[in-house]
Write a structure and sequence with these properties.
By secondary structure, the protein is α+β, with helices and mostly antiparallel strands. It is 53% helix and 8% strand. Among the domains are: 80-130 and 316-338, Orthogonal Bundle (Lysozyme); 239-298, no CATH class. The protein has helices at 14-21, 24-27, 34-47, 51-58, 65-71, 80-87, 90-102, 104-114, 118-129, 140-150, 155-172, 194-200, 216-229, 262-267, 300-306, 312-347; strands spanning 138-139, 180-181, 239-244, 260-261, 270-271, 281-288, 293-298.
Amino acid sequence: MNRVINKLFVGASFSLILTLQVPHVLADGVSLRPEVRQFVEQMASRHQFSRNELVALFGQVQSRQDIIAAMTRPAEGKPWFQYRPIFVNDARVQGGVEFWKKHESVLAKAQADYGVPPEIITAIIGVETRYGKHTGTYRVLDALYTLGFDYPPRSTFFMSELEQYLLLTREEKLDPALLKGSYAGAMGQSQFISSSYRRYAVDFDNDGVRDLWQSIPDIIGSVANYFQAFGWRANEPVVARAQVSGEEYKALLDNIKPNITIANLKQKGVTITDDIAPDQLSALIEYQGESDMEYWLGLQNFYVITRYNRSPLYAMAVYQLAQEIRALHDAQHVKDKTSAVTTKRKGK
């Protein structure tokens, strides 16, 4: 392997990594909780991991209360008018335009291959990590261990992710004790969880490594591949503005999956001004504005964004950030072209 990423990628096998880090003679002396030992046994029997090596690895793990605390106060707990400014602001818009300009050819290739427009891919990376500036400070192993063994509301999910993480690090020759990410164990500039990394990450620069930390082509291609896999429809709208009247519309709320046609919505007191086909499926979504409620119809592409993060707040923030990035990018592009033409004429 030619590239080493902050000492996370190594050329040795998973077994050799652990052998060098923790001598086998210490493994038998490590005290693990019964449920952790049971997990070790399952990984050994199901996936042929070494028991001693896993015992040694889990002997280094910390269960962290701050991770549990972070899980109980996500940004998605805020109302829309407070949530939106966190992600849709001048800094992220300008940063998105700069990211797009810097990586324009890769974004164009991703759109050609997967059908996902540059502004959507850029906005995802902007919302997730501020274009790679903040990829997380928690050890992924600690996060998944804590949430799997000490956070009952979602223990089943995170135990599965812990299993996927160990498989991922073995397959990609990553050191499981060193990788860092979010408090929920998401990794890299695109913040893929372990199962998503294994399933949807792509080697878009064809160097033999799927690197979501430093390879911009891999990061961009992986986000685009993820969206395509969940049914992104190229050149179709994401949302439509809506207005409501009466009481029947209330029964349609709280479902982000498109499940009712535009024609049927009109019968429930929902009207739209956008030109959307009457047989188009949509979901009615309500947002708390600063003074009034906002109503939007989430279409198929909006639902695809929620596969990245199930919160409709998140999906709308990505969409609106993408729209502002596109508007500024296009305005600067026109300005640059005009300036170039003017300069050329003066040169004559």
